[in-house]
């Protein structure tokens, strides 16, 4: 029997911790326009490289370049900018509302606005997102009323979810936004099931699943890939890699894997990586994947490379686990500024118009907030009734719940 | 009206439901081409095609997770978990998702799904083919839990479960698949085809969820049972000669409390029986309810006769199983109390 | 002797255990560098290195599955599930594997593992940060289940759990992390540092698993409670002026039945309280046991005061929470019965 | 909005069903010796091809050829043959014993003997297998007494597991064989945890996880790969692809993936595919993977390509879902015959000696069986006591169990 050296235990560590100098030298950023655009019918085996690169459209001069450019009109781009700016203003106001005690909890999207805003514009009506808690851009870009979002956040009398759900756990069937679960990853396989149902019914609708980098470690991620691969489900499986899972850097979930997108290869699923801070790139890749699903070509896995600029949630303080200025060093920039600069570069936008739009949007958000607050906030004003607490557990209230409701005095 | 085994009755219920409603889909491990390891889905793929009845990867969480997505879409999935012992990988999807989706989305998304699974011991299946996990579901708000004890009920309750707009856990006592079982393994098995209780009407009918059935009227003591234990309880009554009233709960949640209350108020005594382990089993809930609602009528404590608080052993199966003798001793004990 | 919050007491227990036994390892989501979202593991990685305390991928089944392998190797993993609401993906590993490994291998492999998790509501956490799943563990043979109600117990019981040779589910009432809570959210929070019950001895000590504590002696009625509800029950006794004996169970399984029996036989009345949903909650087991073992001493039915059978709502948190008023009404009801 | 064609639902189907002619034309079998043997330190990215080929050593002429040949002496090969023949004889007797009602259940290994027998011989003492129910070869090759195996199968008074476990769910810590669970895949992540523990303790032991093709769909497969990848655990993760999971062909679990081995690529885990019916190839690949683990190079994923010749278990009849003669058409042949022929080709074995050995082994097995049966069989003779049923749930029996044991009369 051979002499063996003692083993040692390996735990991945991020490049820097608080006190250190931010360092993203391990993030290789390819030139915008440099990654090829295969046909949607391409054999997954022939496009494995796309999981190891980053598809980018906007270059440093704010031009849209390369094979993934050219899909959106100026109007559409301006609308995209508006969506992202709205989400950012919405975040600012709701974050503050939480600090003011008007609700218990909030989660921001700062830095990640392009991902959900651009994706939504690639879907057809009737398609269904299965989002996590960091994709409110899907709702904003699909025209869901901000007031309704706020009423949900405030758990007030007009909360469409009757106060039952944690703030930001929206649900809107009509707007293609599946009810958010607080449990990570569970909805990823549900998206696949929904897509399978559409195929079983020979309908035309597709589904989009959403998951964070950290949550790809959950078992349901695997279930989703297995089922999507086996039944060639018409689904787009989106991984938002914002580098962090609360205090845990993405290396803990990614392990020895090159990228999260590469996880799709073991399933024969076309897997792409895209600059998540580039509205045009996100939209182009989303269109490509959505097209595959609609054409019956099966699932696509997309990894959005982005950065969570804010805290994980209002319960979190990132200064405990990463350098304070890390987000400034993030090499992919800010999605709002990048799209703004592109529009300016195209000559259809200006700093002045941008500032004006910012003010307009903020006014809209504040107006919506005022309106929402007339219906109450978490601790003051009108609220959902305790009676509502007993409703909706079942389609028809069973006797034991009726008894309990009576006992509770409602 | 033909006699059917419980397997045939279940297959019939699936067939009837698939025939009436194109949204009913059936899937699970080995469920498609082969028709299930207990053959409950035999012939359905041939009749309705692979889009309506199909094999799945071995992933209970995937099966349930996909079914939830399908149900939210508008289908009515009736899925099979190969053994109840293997439902735990899907437990998160069931309790965190299926059970709460209607509530948390305020009715925008619902989960009209049935999760069928063979349950219980008595076939020398050891610790991983014998479990009775019903109490793990009755504790979860938003679920319904059903356990039939004969072919007629199996069919009528399964159709009701499929037509129900909420998730239903449907536990099939595998020891009853082929014939009734009174807890005496040494006796030859009588198939349902030789038992009048094997009569199953053709076509569509429904046994409503939430209604218990009195299997044996009696004045001395009420026995609350479900699934296999209904037959064991009847045997215990016969063997002890105690005039027990045997109630087959059929649906554990919602529970038919009025029938239970009326019976216990009449008899003044109650024994609860199940095969699952004792502590925190569904019998605890039944005992708690009975003592609360019938306190002033009780002449003796409510006793529970259950599986022991150990994993289900292989060789000692019949020491573990709460057979007619043990139930009989409890009947005697409450009568003497 | 210093006063410590429950968080500090837990951290202390981990520190003491890691210091004494190099086989104790601590891991979970955000547990390593950052020290846990509730900061229970703060400083441990720095002190003991990344091999003894580390961050894991977000995979509860992976965390528990890996811990089982480690425990079988000979380590004593004490792992954290970030919220009890997220334990379900690991439920299969806990019930099918950890709970049965000693039994099925006839002692060749054992699982000296502790699964810590914050439990209970009262922090506006909504349906996924508020659950009390204890009954889902007490039904599983092979597990022990512990719920401390104060810093002293938290430390002593956690050390005992880590030193125990079997898997222990350790539920930490998060509403008690920083101070006692009597069920009145409108009152300011008193930190443990201002409460004499915050006294926690330094160094190693053990509170044995399976021993209840009488928190308030009384003659009129026995209240069985654990975790947050111990404080609520004490408040209810004070507010109603009913001479209740409040028993803090501390360990749900194994249960200290003799203490319960003695108390109920003395008082003749019993109210069981918990935050989990009513049906098939642990209160059902307690009520069933009490009526069985104290039948002839009971003057009134055992009542249960619990969370309602709905998901834990966000806005209606205080309508859901079984507060002192509801417990008080039950005390009055059993006194008048 | 574009006009969309209706989607359709895709369910993979095996090439043939009962009544059809067996067809393995989709199984590409590379020439023996044709697949390269990289250094164990090789970068996983540089050896992706090994997950899409099949490493083979024994050619049609029964010669051992190529870079994976040459590891075993004639004695070792003869021992290997003996192990496989013993397992086959053991299977035959126990299958019959079940038919005779001496036990409730049995599972055979026919056609897959090389996988576990050859793997075990690559381990060091102290290493630990986390097997499924179809790796009894690990026990046989490690010298675990057959009588003990049989006593377990009979649940008799000498059953090391006291009658508590289903037949064949062996456990032997001493022989590096972790207690088998009836639940699929759970032990895969436990193997990783065990390996992590060894590394944490700076010991030298490694672990081997085992899983079937069908069971790779389970969530714990994912957990195992995630943890193994992140912590570079010293573990060999074995997938036994015997083409079937009860009645379900491997295409349902594999989906659009090229191979099961390819699942490792998304985790940066070196992944190899090997001819599972070639004792020499299995052993060589196992050695390679075990060496990686022992050298602290991290996990390896190995897919053994083989065929389940028999029924799934004594509860199964495969004629309901696959052609009766499918196993005859299996292109990788029979592992026992192939090794026998190799030894004959080497001039150290003969048909006569083989027949004699077969008889000897059968006599040994029968002797063991007789001995085991003196301690009882499931339904007759001495058995574990009902008292044993209550022991071992906990280290110390808690009061409620003591009460129950008393109530039960023991
Ligand atoms: C099953 C489950 N486990 C743990 C948590 C607690 N939790 C909430 S968010 C989070 C981190 C998620 O990180 P990631 O997936 O990267 O998404 P991000 O927050 O970065 O958008 C954790 C661990 C949870 N919600 N659900
Ligand atoms: C969690 C779980 N689900 C389902 C089963 C039932 N079951 C036992 S074996 C088996 C097929 C396994 O196939 P595979 O993994 O390919 O292994 P093989 O039997 O071919 O060796 C199934 C579905 C189980 N034992 N555990
Ligand atoms: Mg993240
Ligand atoms: Mg197989």
Structure description:
The complex is a heterotetramer, with 2 copies of chain A (410 residues) and 2 copies of chain B (337 residues). Chain A has 410 residues and is of the alpha/beta class. In chain A, helix 1 packs antiparallel against helix 10 (335-345) and helix 1 crosses helix 11 (351-373). The mean pLDDT of chain A is 97. In chain A, 37% of the residues lie in helices and 8% in strands. Chain A has helices spanning 74-99, 113-120, 136-141, 146-154, 186-200, 219-231, 251-254, 279-294, 326-329, 335-345, 351-373, 386-390, 399-408, and strands spanning 128-130, 207-212, 235-241, 244-245, 248-249, 271-275, 300-305. Chain A has a single domain, classed as Thiamin diphosphate (ThDP)-binding fold, Pyr/PP domains (Rossmann fold), CATH 3.40.50. In chain A, the strands form 2 sheets. Chain A has a 5-stranded parallel beta sheet with strand order 1-2-3-7-6, with helices on both faces. In chain A, strands 4-5 form a two-stranded antiparallel ribbon. The longest helix of chain B is centred in the first third of the chain and has 15 residues, at 6-20. Chain B is built from 12 helices and 14 strands. By secondary structure, chain B is of the alpha/beta class. Helices cover 35% and strands 18% of the residues of chain B. Chain B is globular and about 60 Å long. In chain B, the strands form 3 sheets. Chain B has a 7-stranded mixed beta sheet, sandwiched between helices. In chain B, strands 9-11-10-13-14 form a 5-stranded mixed beta sheet, with helices on both faces. A two-stranded antiparallel sheet of chain B has the order 1-8. The model of chain B has no long low-confidence stretch (mean pLDDT 98). Chain B folds into 2 domains: 6-198, Rossmann fold, CATH 3.40.50; 213-336, 3-Layer(aba) Sandwich (Rossmann fold), CATH 3.40.50. Chains in contact: A-B, A-C, A-D, B-C, B-D, C-D. Chains A and D meet through helix 5, helix 6 and helix 7 of A and helix 5, helix 6 and helix 7 of D. The complex binds thiamine diphosphate (2 copies) and magnesium ion (2 copies). One thiamine diphosphate sits between chains A (134, 182-184, 212-215, 240, 242, 244-246, 308, 312) and C (29, 58, 82, 86, 89).
């Amino acid at each position: 029997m051979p002499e063996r050296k003692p083993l040692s235990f390996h735990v991945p560590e991020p490049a820097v911790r608080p006190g250190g100098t931010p360092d993203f030298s391990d993030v290789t950023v390819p030139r915008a326009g440099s990654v090829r655009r295969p046909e949607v019918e391409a054999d997954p085996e022939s496009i494995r490289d796309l999981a190891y690169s980053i598809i980018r459209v906007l270059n440093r001069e704010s031009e849209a370049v390369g094979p993934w450019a050219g899909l959106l009109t100026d109007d559409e781009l301006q609308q995209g900018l508006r969506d992202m700016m709205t989400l950012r203003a919405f975040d600012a106001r709701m974050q503050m509302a939480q600090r003011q005690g008007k609700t218990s909890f909030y989660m921001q999207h700062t830095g990640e606005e392009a991902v959900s805003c651009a994706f939504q514009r690639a879907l057809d009506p009737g398609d269904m997102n299965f989002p996590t808690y960091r994709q409110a851009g899907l709702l904003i870009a699909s025209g869901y009323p901000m007031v309704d979002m706020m009423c949900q956040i405030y758990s007030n009398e007009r909360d469409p979810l009757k106060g039952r759900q944690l703030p930001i756990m929206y649900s809107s069937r009509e707007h293609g936004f599946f009810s958010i679960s607080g449990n990570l990853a569970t909805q990823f396989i549900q998206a696949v099931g929904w897509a399978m149902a559409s195929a079983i019914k020979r309908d035309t609708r597709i589904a989009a699943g959403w998951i964070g980098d950290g949550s790809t470690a959950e078992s349901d991620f695997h279930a989703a890939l297995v089922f999507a691969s086996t039944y060639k489900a018409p689904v787009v499986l989106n991984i938002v890699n914002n580098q962090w899972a609360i205090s845990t850097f993405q290396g803990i979930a990614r392990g020895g894997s090159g990228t999260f997108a590469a996880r799709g290869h073991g399933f024969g699923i076309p897997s792409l990586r895209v600059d998540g801070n580039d509205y045009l790139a996100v939209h182009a890749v989303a269109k490509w994947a959505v097209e595959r699903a609609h054409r019956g070509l099966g699932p696509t896995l997309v990894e959005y490379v982005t950065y969570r600029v804010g805290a994980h949630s209002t319960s979190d303080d990132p200064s405990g686990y990463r350098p304070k200025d890390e987000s400034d060093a993030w090499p992919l920039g800010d999605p709002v500024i990048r799209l703004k600069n592109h529009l300016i570069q195209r000559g259809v936008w200006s700093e002045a118009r941008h500032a004006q739009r910012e003010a307009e949007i903020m006014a809209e958000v504040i107006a919506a907030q005022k309106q929402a607050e007339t219906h109450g906030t978490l601790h003051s004003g009108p609220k959902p009734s305790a009676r509502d607490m007993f409703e909706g557990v079942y389609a028809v209230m069973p006797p034991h719940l009726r008894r309990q409701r009576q006992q509770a005095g409602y | 009206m033909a006699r059917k085994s419980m397997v045939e009755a279940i297959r019939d219920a699936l067939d009837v439901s698939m025939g009436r409603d194109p949204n009913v889909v059936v899937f699970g491990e080995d469920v498609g081409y082969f028709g299930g390891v207990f053959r409950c889905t035999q012939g359905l793929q041939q009749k309705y095609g692979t889009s309506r009845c199909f094999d799945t990867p071995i992933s209970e969480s995937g099966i349930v997770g996909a079914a939830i997505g399908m149900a939210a879409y508008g289908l009515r999935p009736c899925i099979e978990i190969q053994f109840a012992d293997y439902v735990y990988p899907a437990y998160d999807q069931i309790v965190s998702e299926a059970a709460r989706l209607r509530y948390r989305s305020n009715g925008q998304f619902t989960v009209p799904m049935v999760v069928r699974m063979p349950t219980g011991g008595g076939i020398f299946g050891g610790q991983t083919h014998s479990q009775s996990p019903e109490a793990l579901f009755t504790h979860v708000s938003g679920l319904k839990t059903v356990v039939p004890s004969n072919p007629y009920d199996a069919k009528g309750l399964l159709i009701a479960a499929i037509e129900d707009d909420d998730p239903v856990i449907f536990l099939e006592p595998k020891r009853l698949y082929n014939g009734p079982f009174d807890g005496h393994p040494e006796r030859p098995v009588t198939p349902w085809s030789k038992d009048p209780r094997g009569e199953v009407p053709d076509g569509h009918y429904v046994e409503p969820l939430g209604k218990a059935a009195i299997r044996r009227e009696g004045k001395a003591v009420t026995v609350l049972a479900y699934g296999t234990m209904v037959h064991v309880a009847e045997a215990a009554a016969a063997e002890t000669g105690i005039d027990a009233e045997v109630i087959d709960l059929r649906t554990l949640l919602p529970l038919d409390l009025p029938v239970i209350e009326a019976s216990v108020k009449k008899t003044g005594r109650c024994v609860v029986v199940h095969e699952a382990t004792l502590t925190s089993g569904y019998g605890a809930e039944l005992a708690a309810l009975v003592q609360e609602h019938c306190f002033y009528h009780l002449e003796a404590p409510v006793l529970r006769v259950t599986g022991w608080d150990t994993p289900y052993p292989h060789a000692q199966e019949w020491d573990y199983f709460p057979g007619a003798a043990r139930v009989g001793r409890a009947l005697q004990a409450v009568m003497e109390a």
